[in-house]
Amino acid sequence: MTDLLQIVKSAVAATVAWWISTAVFDSELPFLAPWTALLTVHATVHRSLSRGIQSTVASAVGVGLSFVIGTFLGVSVWTFALAIFVGLLGARLSWIRDEGVAIATTAVFVLGSGFSRQDDLLLERLAEVGVGVVIGVVVNVLVLPPLRDQQAARYVDSINRRMGGVLVSMADEMSQSWGTEQADSWFAETQSMSTELESAWQMVRFARESRRGNPTRALHRLSARQRAPSADHSDVRFEDILYRVDEGVSHLRHLTRTLREATYASGEWDDRFRTQWVAIVRDAGRAIADPDADVEPLGGRLTSLSARMSTDEGLPQQTWPLYGSLITSVQHIVTIVDDVASARDAREHPAG
């Protein structure tokens, strides 16, 4: 849907710019305005403004370069090559690097379409470039630029569901027995979550950029105030949520490593510890996958489990490093469960 919207915006901007160039300016080179309009239309308003400025500068330099070379050296194979060479050198300037190639391409258009030495045409060419940039920015502002907040929220929710799914699967398997194969699959799933998390970070950064200079943002904020005038989510950001989710994935990965190593250890697990720990893990998985799930508070249950096991003289001492590591990992995950659940409303109604 976003790609289609981008295509529509580009087509509208180029068409309007072409119409103005032909109907208003009666331009001899009517392609300059629609071409710069296409260069200016980007996925966000902020990017359109920043790239639009670069396009304006680069295109203006290209027009000026064409007139200088055409006026003093004429148009030939060698002067054409010189214009391209100088234009590509200019494209390496850091402050216009994103759109710097427009210097060379503008020179191609102006020199390749027939050159006139009339000085007044230079201002007309520059005006057409300006029209294209303005039309591109205006269209990008008016044609519902995306905020991308919902896409970012879906990434967060997807990772949460996957984390919860791993914990529930872990509890189901460990209720009976498990082996290295299951532990390896859980570990591989956490690696896949990290990959998805990278995509989530990219989407969140894009969402932040899309809010800069975006008129849709003001409409969203006004609508949010009308729905809940007293709500204030300004203290919670997607970045903060992703940091917490990233921590949760890291602790989950450590937990899967611990369980994988435990499959090589000799000796039987204490059934009392296994039963209680598995129940907590299952509820933690349910809670992180669905913040609305009806789950008994988990922190106190882990503390109680640790206290009971530590005072149990029948528990073999050599198992405590393993059990302690499992309890600690789940404790960290539980803390993140609480943070993610409390931030759910902020994910649905993100701050500006």
List keywords for this structure.
2 domains, 75% helix, 0% strand
What does the secondary structure layout of this molecule look like, with pairings?
Elements: H1 2-24, H2 32-40, H3 45-72, H4 77-90, H5 102-112, H6 120-142, H7 149-174, H8 180-211, H9 215-227, H10 238-262, H11 271-289, H12 298-310, H13 320-342, H14 344-348
Explained architecture:
- It contains 14 helices and no strands.
- The chain is mostly helical and 352 residues long.
- Helix 3 packs across helix 5, helix 8 packs antiparallel against helix 10 and helix 12 packs antiparallel against helix 13.
- It is elongated.
What would you say about this model in short?
The protein has 352 residues and is mainly alpha-helical.
| Annotated CATH topology of the largest domain | Methane Monooxygenase Hydroxylase, Chain G, domain 1
- How much strand content do the residues show? under 5%
Q: Please state the overall shape, judged from the principal axes of the Cα atoms.
A: elongated
Give the mean pLDDT: 76
Cα-to-Cα separation, first versus last residue: 23 Å
| Rg value | 30 Å
The total number of structural domains is: 2
H/E element sequence: HHHHHHHHHHHHHH
Largest beta-sheet characterization? none
- Spans of at least 5 consecutive residues whose pLDDT stays below 50 are 222-235
Number of helical runs? 14
Helix content: over 70%
For the secondary structure, the number of strands is 0
If classified by CATH, what would the architecture of the largest domain be? Up-down Bundle
Structural class: mainly alpha
- CATH class (first level) name of the largest domain: Mainly Alpha
